[in-house]
Sequence to fold (106 residues):
Amino acid sequence: MSAAEQAWENAGKQQHAYFLALRIERAAWLRRTRETLWDRWGGHCAICSCELPISHMTIDHICPKRHGGSDEIHNLRPLCKRCHEELNWHDQCLGALLLSWIVAHA
Ligand SMILES: [Zn+2]
Fold:
């Protein structure tokens, strides 16, 4: 194997290790965040206050990421699946309404 090929292979391995580390870090962050949120809200949904087993908890961005919301703990809240789905639905509805208004008034 030439030096160039060796270097190419090493770079590939390093990149692989880098992405693996990123994924592990992300998974660890998610687990920590879930536990912190669940603790903070006493194991309840932030909207309907139903009792929420941590395995059923979903994480909601109060200010959505596409609007510049962060992954910081103060921008996150625990929701049950039903509330999260309803919220997403309203969000999409509002988006569609806004779009049709813009189109109608353009
Ligand atoms: Zn709920």
